[in-house]
Amino acid sequence: MVETSNLQGLGKHIAVLVSGGVDSSVAVHLLVEAGYTPTLFYIKIGMEDEKGNLLCSTEEDLEIITHLARHYHLPLEIVNLQEDYWEKVVSYTIEAVKRGLTPNPDIMCNKLIKFGCFEEKWGKDFDITATGHYATTTRVGDKIFLSTAKDTVKDQTYFLGQINYFQLSKLVFPIGDLLKSEVRQIATRARLPSASRKDSQGICFLGKIHYNDFIKRYLGEKPGKIVEWETGKIVGTHRGYWFHTIGQRRGLGLSGGPWFVIAKNIEENILYVSNGYDPELQYGTLINMTGFQYISENIWGDFETREISFKIRHTPDFAEGVLSRVGDLFRIVSREKIQGIAAGQFGVVYDKARCLCVGSGEIV
User: Fold this and answer.
1) How far apart are the C-alpha atoms of 45 and 32, rounded to whole Å?
2) Please, what is the Cα angle at 185 between 180 and 191, to 5 degrees?
3) What is the Cα–Cα distance from 43 to 356, expressed in whole angstroms?
4) Catalytic residue among 56, 109, 117, 357
5) Which of 52, 79, 192, 324 is deepest in the core (most CB within 10 A)?
6) Is the dihedral of CA 205, 45, 117, 33 positive or negative?
7) pLDDT tens for residues 153-174?
């Protein structure tokens, strides 16, 4: 029997965002085991081809969640947020790439769509919204804080780093105290059709479209030079700076490598690279963030510097550093050199114990 005591007292009206994957399916199972009758919601956000067909796995998703709803005798609603997703997330992605930045559409999807538009249109009628994210919540005094999952490899708090307190206060993560292996075992014992389904990979709205094909569709191509940073020597050409990100190694088409992208000149459409397996120029210790916001509240009060843990990308590994404020910016000075610090990505800040996810800002 799975421990469900952490799911007590959630309220009568619970919405569950389901995707067709094993994680959200097990979240539903645990809620039912705890005595709830949640309403399932599947959000359509995927892109369409020229014929209007969705380019992601919607058909298979719907088969699984329909089976899930029938098996547990639960209501299921399919809601369409494609237009909202385009206006809020896809357009953000295209504009950021055009400006030479490295966007994170999955972070913005959580903030603006799953816990933004969905809450405004449907979630408002429910006491709680549950998801299959690997995350937990922790109460400190009278405040709820976003906190890390038991499974440190699968932890998804990085992707939740931009949500606000109202959004967090209505969320519950039923699988946050489980390892992925335990989630699979529960799904197998419960004979859920998603038990052996592979985890989804890549950006949520692209489906089977390759990222560069998506970018080409909206920004086209713009040939330019690839220049070695140290010597100024032209070592190749590219099809547009927007196809490349800071820290990128593969896909440059250069011989005599490895080569790493270390900078971009947007005005002149130049890609700067450095050669070698560990080029010093791809590392840094200084991370400036704009628009930093705390998810719940500032747990440290007024401070000049504060020792923290942080991430600048979704990874199991934390980095350690010192957080300070410089004018309107929040600044992290990392204890060790960090590879591929890219403007447009998000720096997500945690307490030193790597438990509480405190807040985030966009790297500039």
Assistant:
1) 27
2) 125
3) 28
4) 109
5) 192
6) negative
7) 999 999 999 999 999 999 999 9
Active site residue 204: yes
**Alpha-carbon distances, residue 346 vs 102, 108, 278 (angstroms):** 9, 10, 24
> Is 357 in the active site?
no
Ranges of each domain in the chain: 10-132+174-189, 221-277, 283-363
List the beta bridge partners of residue 238: 224
DSSP state letter for 166: H
CA–CA separation, 143 vs 1, rounded Å? Answer: 31
Written out in words, the top-level CATH class of the domain with range 221-277 is mainly beta
CA–CA gap between residue 290 and residue 281 (Å, rounded): 23
CA atoms of 114 and 131, how far apart (whole Å): 10
Bridge pairing between strands 76-80 and 329-339: unpaired
Fold type of domain 283-363: Elongation Factor Tu (Ef-tu); domain 3 (2.40.30)
3-state secondary structure 198-217: CCCCCCCCCCCCCHHHHHHH
Of residues 354, 305, 293, 313, the one with CA closest to residue 332: 305
In angstroms, what CA-CA distances link 260 with 246, 256, 287, 288, 364?
8, 12, 19, 22, 20
Q: Hey, what CATH class is 10-132+174-189 in?
A: alpha beta
233-260: pLDDT as tens digits: 999 999 999 999 988 888 899 998 889 9
For residue 235, give Cα distances in angstroms to 184, 187, 270: 48, 52, 11
Instruction: Tell me how far apart the 2 most distant CA atoms of the chain are, in Å.
Output: 67
Q: Of these residues, 56, 117, 204, 357, which one is catalytic?
A: 204
pLDDT tens digits, residue range 304-327? 999 999 999 999 999 999 999 999
Residues 56/92, Cβ–Cβ less than 8 Å: no
Angle between helices 22-33 and 180-189 (to 10 degrees): 70
Whole-angstrom distance, CA of residue 34 vs CA of residue 89: 35
Which of the 8 DSSP states describes residue 113? I
Place of tokens 């052996």: 196
Enter the pTM of the model: 0.90
Task: Give CA–CA dist 230/219, Å, rounded.
Answer: 30
